[in-house]
Design goal:
The chain is mainly α. The protein has one domain. About 80% of the residues lie in helices and about 0% in strands. It is built from three helices and no strands. The protein has helices at about 1-25, 30-60, 60-85.
Length: about 100
């Protein structure tokens, strides 16, 4: 199971790079650096959490497992939302003509 998690981590890391690369290149340089730094930090925290949860669950530490799920999942979701906002996946709709009829 551990080998599969390592393989999955590598595949998801490469997929994340391929997914972010086109959007990150269009932005300003500082935003590109922030996006890549956030991606690496988010990715590291996510997989630290997965491995911590996996190890604690396999030896039966219920309290540590539930705390790690709450802590690492919370941090991972917050970082993912921040990065999605910086990349433009989540955001305010642009003002202007939306094609809708207004009364």
């Amino acid at each position: 199971m551990g080998t599969f998690l390592i393989f999955l981590a590598g595949v998801l890391f490469l997929a994340g790079i391929l997914f972010i690369k086109p959007r990150a290149k269009r932005e300003q340089m500082w935003k590109t650096v922030v996006n890549w730094a956030l991606f690496v930090i988010w990715y590291g925290i996510t997989w630290m959490g997965v491995s911590f949860i996996y190890i604690n669950a396999s030896v039966g530490h219920v309290k540590a497992t539930s705390t790690a799920i709450f802590l690492f999942l919370g941090i991972s979701v917050v970082l993912a939302v921040v990065q999605a906002r910086l990349l433009g996946f989540i955001g305010v709709k642009k003002a202007g003509n939306t094609g809708e009829l207004q009364a």
